Task: inverse folding
């Protein structure tokens, strides 16, 4: 589905990001794999995926809490002189706190990583995609941004900002063949979900139609669709992937 495409994917060390990296490679994409920290295990995994699928995977190290690090990562991608077709923004953090207990530090950290960094990075990558005639930008939000969730004001608000941003980007860059969409996962089997209380998870699952936790590869499949030409007429949308939570 992605043969001959080149994607930039953030947050690839674990969970949804790791599954997305693997799926894109299996489907023929060359990848700039953006991770928070360099490890021997990650470097080896990238080399193995590259060899197994006959694609090029270039590790890029980027701290989304640091704007200078974001700029340097974008420069590395630019220097490679590969045509960029898609950007999948997955990196993010969750800092739960009740409304009356939220600190300014929690607000600033969450918005820096979950919103500010993603807009800045997307600006850089969009410029590269424009040189290639267009492309697809995908942000990762959450059903918490749409429904709200007890104790997740900061997380939900930062993820909701991405939804508004994507709608605006889709209108501003649509005529230049840049699409912007949002994926809003529900309860997915990941480290972030593992940090939730069992009561919260059970409540969400009880409200869902499928009555089960989602798998990371299921979210990765949606990212792949939005990065592919099969979604060429889809932009400005927020797509829930939550097992039918209503």
Result:
């Amino acid at each position: 589905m992605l043969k001959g495409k080149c994607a930039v994917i953030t947050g690839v060390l674990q969970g949804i990001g790791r599954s997305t990296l693997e799926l894109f490679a299996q489907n023929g994409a060359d990848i700039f794999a953006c991770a928070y920290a360099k490890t021997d295990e990650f470097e080896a995994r990238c080399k193995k995926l590259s060899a197994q699928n006959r694609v090029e995977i270039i590790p890029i190290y980027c701290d989304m809490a640091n704007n200078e690090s974001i700029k340097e990562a974008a420069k590395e991608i630019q220097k490679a002189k590969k045509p960029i077709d898609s950007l999948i923004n997955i990196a993010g953090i969750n800092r739960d706190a009740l409304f009356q207990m939220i600190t300014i530090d929690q607000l600033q950290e969450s918005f820096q990583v979950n919103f500010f960094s993603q807009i800045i990075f997307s600006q850089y990558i969009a410029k590269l995609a424009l040189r290639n005639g267009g492309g697809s930008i995908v942000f990762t939000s959450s059903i918490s941004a749409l429904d709200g969730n007890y104790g997740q004001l900061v997380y939900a608000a930062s993820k909701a900002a991405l939804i508004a941003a994507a709608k605006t980007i889709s209108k501003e860059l649509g005529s230049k063949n840049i699409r912007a969409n949002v994926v809003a996962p529900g309860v997915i089997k990941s480290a972030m979900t593992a940090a939730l209380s069992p009561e919260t998870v059970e409540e969400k699952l009880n409200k869902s139609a499928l009555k089960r936790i989602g798998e990371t590869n299921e979210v990765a499949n949606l990212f792949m669709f939005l990065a592919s030409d099969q979604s060429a007429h889809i932009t400005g949308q927020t797509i829930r992937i939550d097992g039918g939570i209503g």
Notes: The chain has a mean pLDDT of 94. The domain at 6-241 is CATH 3.40.50.720 (Rossmann fold).
